[in-house]
Specification:
By secondary structure, this protein is α/β, with parallel strands linked by helices. The chain contains 9 helices and 8 strands. The protein binds pyridoxal-5'-phosphate. Pyridoxal-5'-phosphate binds next to β8 and α9.
């Protein structure tokens, strides 16, 4: 695995997608998704200039965050269990994947006790798949204002994990749907939501063409992930 070469390749592809979409590459932030990736490799990614990292398990993230330089930013991606909220609020600079009012309330509670304000993204189940976490679009519109009313939470935008398909083009309608839903949320809230977190290794170019501002890339940077030693479904969204 040649991380420097992979990173260069990904950046080239980001630039090309931005060019096609008439966007500046600075409008797309690259997150390195480091679940299962050893801490030395994470540090190497930091040395290559990557600054934003995503983890989907609190325990694993805690270990890496304490072992890596302090200039890296960490986001919790994927499903968060309520019993991991305190630790998540303590560790992460953003929680991507708020998918219920119950979870939002729990985050609010711990942010309050830790005297922190925590940026969040709301996760949307864009294809309404039974296997996935995230708000159904209509349910989100019902609860958006209640989440927005929580003083310790700052809604920065939306994130989604559309259905996997071998043909990235098939994902375009879901990305478009998420972008449109973000506009609707902005109208409801009367405020801009700057972040649209969508696009992974298999489909990030299409996501950029559809307006993504944050792509979450694991495999294209670090190669295929080793299998977990035990099944997920603990505190993750289970994209292994
Ligand atoms: C694992 C994961 C990714 C990265 O997936 P790749 O296909 O390896 O790029 C992105 N987002 C979430 C929420 C994930 O769990």
């Amino acid at each position: 695995m040649d991380l420097a070469a992979n990173l260069k390749g990904v950046r080239k592809r980001i630039e090309a997608a931005c060019e096609r979409a008439g966007r500046s590459p600075e409008t797309v932030e690259l997150m390195a998704v480091t679940k299962t990736v050893p801490v030395e490799t994470v540090c190497a990614a930091g040395e290559l200039g990557l600054r934003l990292f995503g983890e989907n398990r609190v325990q694993e993230a805690a270990l890496k965050i304490s072992s890596c330089p302090g200039n890296l930013r960490w986001h919790m991606i994927g499903h968060l269990q309520t019993n991991k909220c305190r630790e998540a609020v303590r560790l992460f600079s953003m929680i991507q994947g708020v998918d219920s009012l119950r979870l939002a309330n729990e985050i609010q509670h711990h942010a309050q006790t830790l005297s922190k304000t925590i940026p969040i993204l709301i996760e949307v189940n864009v294809a309404v798949e039974s296997s996935k976490f995230g708000y159904k679009p209509e349910s989100l519109l019902n609860e958006l204002e209640a989440i927005n009313a929580l003083p310790r939470l700052e809604i920065h935008g939306l994130m989604a994990i559309p259905p996997w398909t071998p043909e990235p083009e098939n994902t375009r309608p879901y990305f478009r749907r998420l972008r449109e839903l973000k506009s609707t949320c902005e109208q409801v809230l009367g405020a801009p939501l700057p972040v649209l977190s969508m696009g992974m290794s298999g489909d990030f170019e299409v996501a950029i063409e559809e307006g993504s501002t944050l792509i979450r890339i694991g495999t294209a940077l670090f190669g295929p992930r080793a299998a977990r030693s035990k099944p997920a479904k603990t505190d993750s969204d289970s994209i292994e």
